[in-house]
């Protein structure tokens, strides 16, 4: 039998932390071995997560492709980064991404959005160019990319956009891709509340109460003045259309 030394070395490198902590627990007997292994696995998960987020942050700043990252489709990270740029809040961006992509594309949206939010450089135009490059490259290879869903995420994130910030990322991205992007603010308002277009008034009021309580500056568990205003405007937009 031929032993693949390179494969063994690679395994040892990837699981060195877990192995060392497990060995440290051997001195305490069987229970120490079990405790050491559990602690090693837990520590390894944390370390790998930190390394992954650091790599993602660098990617947001430098551009390029995440060849060894678990992107569900080319440009997913940059789409999340643009959502964070528009919203100014990673948890809200992750929630929107989960709603729009969740059923078809599975990914750790919280990690993508949190890593983008912690980046030292979050420039809307630059990230739009990174995203356009990733999408054009994928389409050139005949890979399927969810353009409609990406633009939906951006438009929902841009709801209540402050025009003083300049052009919306979705508009610039559409220009780069030569893509016609139709805007529907009423549909976006429903999405802000986590609802399908045309949901009943009762559903709208229920969703509004839940999100208003969550983000209210005085009583919310995730206090966020900007998101509270965004939720209020979405609610008003829908009710005015009734």
Description:
With 242 residues, the chain is mainly alpha-helical. The chain is built from twelve helices and no strands. It has helices at 5-14, 16-26, 30-62, 76-87, 90-101, 109-117, 124-140, 147-157, 169-177, 185-192, 201-215, 225-240. α4 (76-87) packs across α5 (90-101), α4 (76-87) packs antiparallel against α7 (124-140) and α7 (124-140) packs parallel to α9. 32% of the residues are buried.
Percent range for helical residues? Answer: 55-70%
Poorly predicted parts: none
What would you report as the Rg, rounded to the nearest angstrom? 22 Å
Query: So what's the overall shape?
Result: globular
Q: How do the SSEs run, as a string of H and E?
A: HHHHHHHHHHHH
Estimate what percentage of residues fall within beta strands. Answer: under 5%
Terminal CA distance: 74 Å
Strand tally is: 0
- SS element count, helices: 12
* Sheet/helix structural class: mainly alpha
Topology overview:
Blueprint: H1 5-14, H2 16-26, H3 30-62, H4 76-87, H5 90-101, H6 109-117, H7 124-140, H8 147-157, H9 169-177, H10 185-192, H11 201-215, H12 225-240
Helix pairs in contact: 2-3, 3-6, 4-5, 4-6, 4-7, 4-8, 5-6, 5-8, 7-9, 8-10, 10-12, 11-12
